[in-house]
């Protein structure tokens, strides 16, 4: 079988036509944790927020504590920014969903193609996206 240089470099079209059901999904939404933080000089800053991926508000607070390691902060609200839904989470933390035959990275808004082994490339020009990591196969 003859193969062009472009096809050999990018992988055959069939390698990139995959379904989300082949990959591990998690129920994740996007939350904003609102908190007050002590400042130098003894004052308190009330307008702090931390955005995180979580499955519910309690998980968002736990992730806030783990991700920031902030000391002396008081959480006073958790706001849901995006609904909790099944998403494929890449090895580097990017959230990717499939709508029909189109894959979308929720964190960057970039349309991507996903290969059978979970690698991703830009959907518009085919450029590889190594910093997106890979999706885990089931």
TrEMBL record:
Keywords: Plasmid. This is Protein TraE.
């Amino acid at each position: 079988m003859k193969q062009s240089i472009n096809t050999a470099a990018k992988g055959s079209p069939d390698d990139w036509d995959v379904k989300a059901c082949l990959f591990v999904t998690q129920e994740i939404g996007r939350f904003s944790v609102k908190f007050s933080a002590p400042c130098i000089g003894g004052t308190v800053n009330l307008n702090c927020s931390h955005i995180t991926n979580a499955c519910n508000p309690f998980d968002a607070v736990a992730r806030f504590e783990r991700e920031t390691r902030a000391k002396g902060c008081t959480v006073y609200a958790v706001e849901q920014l995006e609904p909790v839904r099944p998403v494929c989470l890449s090895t580097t933390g990017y959230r990717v969903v499939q709508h029909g035959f189109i894959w979308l990275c929720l964190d960057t808004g970039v349309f991507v193609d996903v290969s059978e082994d979970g690698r991703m490339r830009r959907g518009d020009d085919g450029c590889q996206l190594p910093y997106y990591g890979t999706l885990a196969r089931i």
